[in-house]
Design goal:
single chain; mainly alpha; 19 helices; 77% helix; globular
């Protein structure tokens, strides 16, 4: 295979961003955005069907980044379909302007480009630039409503994310310094495949220090506690489709960058084991977010804390390491992206139906809006990890692997999961059941993306195709 398919994954959103920035804002731009996202997904899906090119100095493809690229372009496409109805409804009500439509959709495609570049680049410097571009783009999208609360959330996100990305830059520079004596100066010391091949001879002290900065820097973008403070505000104040993008896509791209550097440390026998640091931050995130769920009244902020909890679970899984835990982490990451974005699709419609984000002013959704209400119920059951939905399988595999490797760690992990489940069902009962509360407007969203995601999560809990299992098993081995 030539680099044509990889180039398309990058070129389609880049060209679409320029086109949408040039077009006058209208309802049509939402459908152009969805069409571009669909073409990007098709190009990404072709990457797993065709022969892979040899790694170049700037771009490469392996089993690990192909998982992320396919997942992110798929969720990017389904979110754009939901977004078309959601944003056009706001435009029809006069809540947003034509200029808003043009900026929003151009930024959406620029964000898809930044994600793809961060995943497909073979250069650790370009990967940092791509994640910084994604940060700046999402800052614009979080503050796009230009209310006082939205601008405050965008500014908070910009400050905290900039600190995190600066720490990640310093960590990247330290990796370059560790590689220089072995690989040589210049571009070669930035090419990830070169680094991985010779990481065993790097200075372990520099690698250790680099990983601490990288974990703090990219951990900020992953939303790990105590580096999470930007995430709830960004979810609460930005457009709901962007909440789906933040939880389902942005957090995963930052996690991908962290996993790449974890592999470098694993290849150096004298470097510290990155696992305990990831386990510690993962457990803190799970326990902290689980208890914070009980104190949230804003429905988007509530599910933002749920995302912090699940990114903690995923980080914990990759920290435990080994074939089974890594497999569980990959599966959980995939299913969390599908489930949480589906939940935010439901939440977007709920907010438009009820005219508020306060859960205390909602109620009886299964009576007033049965399809929407039961869709939310199914989403919460899925994210809680109940059988037969797929997250039950990933959490069961993780608990089993943890029990085999270090039984004492099972106690805080399971405790955090149970505390989180209690909060989820307490709030679900308040919103979905009981006497209807608050105004009830007509729902104008599309339910297809929500139920498509939940259908995939249900299927994954019952049956995983052999090729998918083999793919994930191979990636789990790569991660060590």
């Amino acid at each position: 295979m030539s680099l044509d398919a990889i180039t398309l994954v990058l070129a389609i959103p880049a060209v679409a961003a320029l086109l949408l920035a040039a077009l006058p804002g209208s309802k049509l731009t939402a459908y152009v955005n969805a069409a571009a996202s669909f073409l990007t997904f098709l190009a990404a899906a072709s990457l797993i069907l065709l022969d892979r090119p040899a790694p170049g100095p700037y771009l490469f493809l392996d089993d690990l980044n192909s998982v992320f690229v396919v997942l992110i372009t798929f969720v990017g496409f389904t979110t754009s379909v939901f977004s078309a109805n959601y944003i056009n409804h706001e435009f029809e009500k006069g809540e947003v302007t034509r200029g808003f439509l043009r900026l929003y959709h151009a930024m959406y495609q620029l964000l898809m480009f930044a994600f793809a570049l961060g995943l497909l680049t073979n250069n650790i410097g370009i990967m940092w630039v791509a994640i910084e571009l994604a940060t700046l783009t999402t800052v614009v999208m979080v503050g796009i409503y230009q209310t006082h609360a939205a601008l405050e959330a965008a500014w908070k996100y910009f400050i905290l994310a900039s600190v995190g990305i600066a720490l990640a830059l310093f960590g990247t520079i330290l990796v370059y310094m560790a590689a220089q004596p072995t690989v040589g100066e210049g571009l070669n010391s930035m090419v990830w495949t070169n680094l991985l091949g010779q990481a065993g001879s790097f200075d372990p002290a520099l690698l250790n220090l680099a990983f601490v900065f990288l974990l703090l820097g990219y951990g900020t973008k992953v939303g790990l506690a105590p580096l999470h403070a930007w995430l709830p505000d960004a979810h609460a104040e930005g457009p709901t489709p962007i909440s789906a993008v933040l939880s389902g896509l942005l957090l995963n791209v930052a996690l991908y960058a962290l996993l790449r550097f974890k592999m470098l440390l694993a290849a150096n026998p004298e470097a510290l084991a990155p696992g305990p640091l990831m386990i510690g931050m993962g457990l803190v995130s799970v326990l902290f977010a689980a208890f914070m769920l009980y104190r949230r009244n804003d429905i988007k902020r509530f599910f933002a804390y749920s995302s912090i909890e699940h990114m903690g679970i995923i980080t914990f899984a990759f920290g435990i390491g080994g074939p089974l835990a890594n497999f569980a982490g990959l599966l959980h990451m995939t299913l969390h992206s599908l489930t949480k974005s589906a939940i935010f699709f439901a939440v977007g419609d709920i907010v438009q139906v009820k005219g508020t984000q306060k859960m205390s002013e909602m109620g009886g959704l299964t009576v007033t809006n049965p399809v929407l209400g039961w869709g939310l119920v199914l989403g919460v059951v899925a994210i809680a990890g109940l059988p037969p939905l797929g997250i039950f399988m990933s959490e069961f595999l993780l608990v089993s692997s943890t029990f085999a490797r270090d039984p004492l760690l099972v106690l805080p992990l399971v405790f955090g999961l149970l505390v989180g489940i209690g909060a989820l069902f307490q709030r679900l009962n308040e919103v979905a059941f009981g006497a209807p509360r608050g105004p009830t407007h007509k729902a104008n969203g599309s339910y297809v993306p929500m139920f498509a995601h939940l259908g995939l999560v249900l299927v994954a809990g019952v049956y995983l195709p052999g090729p998918l299992v083999a793919w994930f098993q191979n990636v789990a081995k790569l991660l060590g």
